[in-house]
Design goal:
Elements lengths: L14 H6 L10 E8 L5 E2 L7 E3 L1 H13 L4 E7 L18 H12 L4 E6 L12 E2 L5 E2 H18 L3 E4 L6 H11 L6 E8 L6 H7 L19 H13 L3 E5 L5 H10 L4 E5 L1 H12 L5 H15 L3 E4 L2 H9 L1
Parallel strand pairs: 1-3, 1-4, 1-12, 4-5, 5-8, 8-9, 9-10, 10-11, 11-12
Antiparallel strand pairs: 2-3, 6-7
Helix pairs in contact: 2-3, 3-4, 4-5
The structure holds ligand PBG.
Length: about 325
């Protein structure tokens, strides 16, 4: 017999005792469900994201109704824009009759209490596939892009968005969007800043979903270097100063330390985005029978919560909600 005073296993000896000191909760109220919409008819599967679809507006209604019934209260919309509507400045992004504003108005009419989050960035609308405007010599123009993002955010607010979420990583966009919204009377529209968004390989399936991969180069002059943690705090300071209501880390799973860092550095709600590549990895392993999908997905989401995220954007939101209700 070992002579041990401390035997941590005593606190794990039964389900009831384990439940005494279970530190982290996971429930559908923490989830934001990302949804892909397109202007055509029907639903289109996304090869690298099994179980996710580009939805037409009717299918979007049905998807949201299903999610609502499962306890999900927030969605974020990502549009697949027809090639002929794209241009180098992404002007379709603020068309009041564009796909996103039309979808927002429809959903708000049917689900008035649904929290509507929108993505603010040019990449779905930009013929170059970048989040910003590309200059003739191939640079991403910061300030010109911010002006477009302000028009886009205002367009979403006018359509009824509750939260606009700039995912572009241009400098100074949070403050400019805040001023634009306030000047137009939308002081109640929140900004969820993609504060620490990394230049990640895990966005690959998402770019397939929207056909939005950059036509040249990469996003490293605006998205962050995966090697960096301190830089996330600098971005946090800027976003907080500029009036962000919530901040985000993206991707989630490979960046749990960054989530914990932001959690410690701010009292604002912290969100984390379990991105398309994280989803695809879990799906692929589950399809092969290599992982227990339910257990590994709930564990991955719990890990993101434990690291400090209040909110999780996840393509697994509906499935997880169903599993949590079992
Ligand atoms: C672009 C945007 C991306 C994602 C959300 N908004 C891709 C990118 O930055 O290239 C990725 C989401 C995912 O992979 O699930 N503004």
């Amino acid at each position: 017999m070992l002579s041990l005073r401390s035997r941590p296993r005593r606190n794990r000896k039964s389900a009831a005792i384990r439940a005494f000191h279970s530190e982290t909760t996971l429930s559908p109220r923490h989830f934001i469900l990302p949804l892909f919409v397109h202007a055509g008819t029907g639903i289109q599967p996304i090869a690298s994201m099994p179980g996710c679809y580009r939805l037409d507006l009717d299918a979007l209604d049905a998807e949201v109704a299903g999610a609502w019934a499962e306890g999900i209260r927030a969605v974020v919309l990502f549009p697949a824009i027809a090639e002929e509507l794209k241009n180098s400045t992404g002007d379709e992004c603020y068309n009041p009759n564009g796909l996103v504003p039309v979808a927002i108005r429809r959903l708000k009419a049917k689900f008035p209490d649904l929290v509507m989050v929108t993505d603010v960035a040019l990449d779905p609308y930009n013929s170059d596939g970048h989040d910003g405007i590309v200059s003739p010599d191939g640079r991403i123009l910061n300030d010109e892009t911010v002006a477009q993002l302000c028009k886009q955010a205002l367009c979403h607010a006018r359509a009824g968005a509750d939260i606009v979420a700039p995912s572009d990583m241009m400098d100074g966009r949070i403050g400019e969007i805040r001023d634009t919204l306030d000047d137009a009377g939308f002081t109640g529209v929140s900004i969820l800043a993609y504060t620490a968004k990394y230049a990640s390989a895990f966005y690959g399936p998402f770019r397939d979903a929207l056909d939005s991969a950059p036509k040249f180069g990469d996003k490293k002059t605006y998205q962050m270097d995966p090697a960096n943690r301190r830089e996330a705090l600098r971005e946090l300071d800027a976003d907080v100063d500029e009036g962000a209501d919530m901040v985000m880390v993206k991707p989630a799973g490979p960046y749990l330390d960054v989530i914990a860092e932001l959690r410690a550095a701010t009292d604002l709600p912290v969100a984390a985005y379990q991105v398309s590549g994280e989803y695809a990895m879990l799906k692929a392993a589950a399809e092969k029978g290599w992982l227990d999908e339910k257990k590994s997905v709930l564990e991955s989401l719990m890990g993101i919560r434990r690291a400090g995220a209040d909110i999780i954007l996840t393509y697994y939101a509906r499935q997880a909600a169903r599993w949590l209700a079992e």
